[in-house]
Design brief:
Layout lengths: L3 E4 L4 H4 L6 H19 L4 H4 L3 E4 H7 L8 H11 L3 E8 L6 E7 L2 E9 L2 E8 L1 H9 L6 H7 L5 H11 L6 E5 H8 L11 H18 L6 E2 L3 H5 L2 E5 L10 H13 L6
Parallel strand pairs: 1-3
Antiparallel strand pairs: 2-6, 3-4, 5-6, 7-9, 8-9
Helix pairs in contact: 2-5, 8-10
Length: 265
């Protein structure tokens, strides 16, 4: 029996939930981008057609699998995960404005691999509810963010990159321990990461990966006694900038990532 993904936060409907593998999140990022990009540029056939056809070479590149000979099996496994049942609890559907105590759906209804005109194609059927929700999303995925996020090795670095990229014009941001746990999708009483030092080490690893693989090359995590005492993390984003990120703006962006229906990572 296929496992079910239970969603408690509205945005995780298309964030993919923290239960999904990195490959599955990469596949979902790619599908959302391709659908929204085409629809937003006047190609409404992506909505009207039963299937979205994606050449292997494109999906492989977008999922950052170009150096993996086992990419077909990894794509297959990711698409299979996207066909698993999703359960949403106390979910307000923006399509009709009604709040459902229990709502079940899935991202994909079908997925096929087929060779057409000498080229291997992944043909996927996106669930109609998911299509309707993607159309309603106003902020379309930026290709540069997708390309960088899909290079990340962990789900934490994917989320952190999207968050920090929105503040690239600011000098630094202060993040509370509670704030960071929420961003990473971790419980406040997590066995390991409820401890500041352990969470600091986790954050440091994600920042090092982001520095190496993205355009945020000047990130720096400060380790200072006042910050440790107040259980805060200060991340230098752009040392040439003068302004720090306003706490209200930081909270709003976090809320956008954890409450808006369609966030990617």
């Amino acid at each position: 029996m296929a496992k079910k993904l239970i969603i408690h936060k509205a945005n995780e409907m298309v964030r993919g939930g923290d239960g999904y593998s990195v490959d599955t999140k990469r596949a979902l990022n790619s599908i959302i981008y391709l659908f929204q990009y085409n629809y937003n540029n006047g190609n409404i056939s992506v909505y009207q057609s039963r299937y979205l056809s994606i050449p292997f070479k494109i999906l492989r590149k977008m999922m950052n699998l170009e150096n993996d000979d086992n990419y077909v099996e990894r794509m297959k496994k990711a698409l299979l995960e996207l066909m698993e049942t999703i359960e949403l609890n106390n979910w307000t559907n923006p399509l009709d404005g009604k709040t459902y105590n229990w709502f079940t759906t899935r991202y994909l209804n079908e997925a096929h691999f087929i060779k057409e005109n000498g080229e291997w194609i992944a043909k996927i059927e996106i669930n109609r509810t998911v299509k309707d929700l993607m159309i309603r999303q106003s902020n379309f995925t930026k290709l540069d963010i997708l390309n960088y996020a899909n290079k990340m090795r962990t789900k934490y670095s994917m989320k952190l990159y999207e968050y920090l990229a929105s503040f690239r014009k600011f000098r630094y941001i202060d993040i509370t321990q509670q704030h960071l746990l929420k961003l990473f999708g971790l419980e406040e009483n997590h066995k390991t990461y409820k401890h500041y030092a352990k969470l600091f080490d986790l954050l440091k690893r994600q920042i090092e990966e982001i520095k190496k693989k993205t355009d945020l090359t000047e990130l720096k995590l400060l380790d200072e006694k006042p910050l440790r005492k107040n259980k805060k993390f200060r991340i230098i984003i752009n040392p040439k900038a003068k302004k720090k990120v306003n706490d209200l703006d930081a909270k709003k962006r976090l809320d956008d990532l954890t409450k808006s229906l369609f966030s990617r990572f």
